[in-house]
# Entry
Amino acid sequence: MRIRLLIFFYLISLISANLLVQHFGAYALWASSVILIPFDFVTRCLLHEKWKGTELISKLFLLTFAACVATYAINKNAESIALASIIGFASAQVSSGIFYQLNKRKNFFFKVNISDLFAITFDSIFFQLIAFGSINFLVTIGQIAVKFSGGLLWYYILFKRLRIHEKLEI
# Structure
């Protein structure tokens, strides 16, 4: 699989998640939490394997920024969602990236899924706070559980079934 195709799907899923939440409100958090956001977090781990150091940090930030700009360009009413998304994802990427890097010698299952748990937690808290002005702890706990389950599913699909990490080309 070409890395450009993976990046394309990464961006499409993040933009789609943002626009779903803008259109349907907090209820769309559940839909995006099952499939779209976990896909992005597991994909981040694949990109982490290919990109290193400042290249990793700058490229992931640019991807997140591009998705947020695209969200806003598609729907000007999505400004708070785009802002919440970039802050949520930036905090998620920093926390999960640090964990992933510290555990880079561990097996994929551990470093992908536990780094995703960090990302999921940060993203769920910051996104809700910025997008909706408050945090509903029941929703947050539910989102974390649903996103983590979705992440396990995407891990299985991408790492075990498709073995993308072995086939990813620059």
